[in-house]
Design a protein that fits this description.
This protein has nine helices and 20 strands. It is α+β, with helices and mostly antiparallel strands. The chain has one domain: 3-Layer(aba) Sandwich (Rossmann fold). The strands form five sheets. The protein has a seven-stranded mixed β-sheet, sandwiched between helices. α6 links the parallel β13 and β14.
């Protein structure tokens, strides 16, 4: 079933949320920052753009605000996520039993985390009328080409966001959802992308959003800078495929390039349906070759934006290029009776990324 949500109420929601936060601040002045495990999707390529495979956790050096960090988990491509400590002990075949948290506790991994959670955001605005069927074909081919371990969700947008299919491994359901989309109204890309990112942020493991857009945004109330920061802080990589229509507006082109680069993704500009197919194939290859590393940040007094740098260790590896997100903002959390009650429920996923202070009032987001 396709559910639709009006996006024009986001501005009002922001004002209401701001008032609620102010009231809460007056009642609960104590503010702490909770930083969960930070996950990085990392692509390593040579000078010709070929992927470099077979690297190990010790080949990567991670710094956060200049502080050296120790990787906690590691995976390559569609392989399972493993504890770095167990890999160092020469036992790569066993799944990680526990990974120490920043507070000394242990986060249990009851199962291996394979593949990626892929959210496809399809532009069904009035920009898409001419090439609509070709766009559907390209998305269907992309869905079929992804690995069996990957789970996929299909969302579409014009002025509103439609959750055509929640995250699933059922390819038949997804293909049916693609064919059920229809062209609609004006484009509110950044509104829709923000809500998609909020859904993706709920899941553990490798998370990406693939945007298929046929033109610039002309209806959003959310600035793209806020959307990009949310993606960075949530650990979600953004890939954008846009037609040449977006090239008519240089501002949109620059925004697409900056947003994807900041989150560790890529931007593609297609002249025709063949280029669209090649772009989807490139994204599929990227997902199949990404390294996933995660770490618990060491004590850091900076509660604002934290810069992340990743480099390769050793003279032989320095010639390769590393692509990943460049930072995040920790989640501010207030400790109160309500919060303690809420945290007594189901445990937070071990690989959940920090959430920035951007809220929406969606009450029926896809659940695990």
């Amino acid at each position: 079933m396709v559910t639709k949500y009006p996006l024009s109420i986001l501005a009002s929601i922001a004002l209401i949320a701001a008032g609620a936060n102010l009231a809460q601040a007056q009642e609960s002045p104590d503010i702490h920052v909770v930083v969960n495990m930070v996950q990085l999707n990392i692509a390593v390529t040579d000078r010709k753009g070929n992927y470099v495979t077979g690297l190990r956790p010790e080949d990567f050096a991670i710094q956060e605000d200049g502080i050296a960090e120790k990787a906690a988990t590691f995976s390559e491509g569609d392989g399972p996520t493993r504890s770095v400590d167990e890999l160092a002990q020469g036992n790569p075949a066993a799944p990680p039993s526990s990974v120490p948290g920043s507070d000394g506790a242990s986060q249990n991994f009851s199962s291996e985390i394979n593949g990626a959670n892929v959210f496809i955001l399809f532009d069904t605005s009035d920009y898409m009328y001419r090439g609509f069927v070709f766009a559907q074909d390209a998305i269907c081919d992309f869905v079929r080409s992804l690995g069996t371990a990957d789970k996929i969700a299909l969302y579409s947008y014009s002025r509103d966001l439609s959750r055509a299919s929640s995250l699933t491994s059922d390819r038949g359901q997804l293909l049916k959802a693609v064919r059920s989309t229809v062209a609609g109204d004006q484009a509110a890309l950044y509104n829709a992308l923000l809500l998609t990112l909020k859904d993706a942020a709920q899941y553990r493991g490798k998370k990406v959003v693939v945007v298929f857009s046929n033109g610039p945004d002309n209806s959003s109330v959310v600035p793209p800078e806020d959307v990009a920061e949310f993606a960075q802080s949530s650990g979600v990589s953004i890939y954008m495929i846009s037609t040449q229509q977006a090239r008519l507006e240089p501002v949109s082109t620059a925004v697409f390039d900056r947003m994807t680069a900041a989150t560790g993704g890529k931007a593609y500009f297609s002249k025709n349906w063949r280029d669209e197919w090649r772009a989807f194939a490139s994204i599929r290859d990227d997902l199949a070759h990404l390294y996933s590393l995660s770490y618990y940040p060491k004590p850091n007094q900076n509660n604002g934006w934290r810069a992340i740098t990743v480099r390769l260790v050793g003279e032989k590896l320095k010639k390769y290029k590393v692509r990943t997100r460049n930072g995040y903002r920790p989640q501010p959390t207030r400790f109160s009776a309500d919060v303690k009650t809420a945290t007594s429920g189901p445990p937070v996923p071990a690989l959940q990324a920090p959430q920035p202070e951007i809220e929406s009032k969606e009450t029926d987001s896809p659940r695990r």
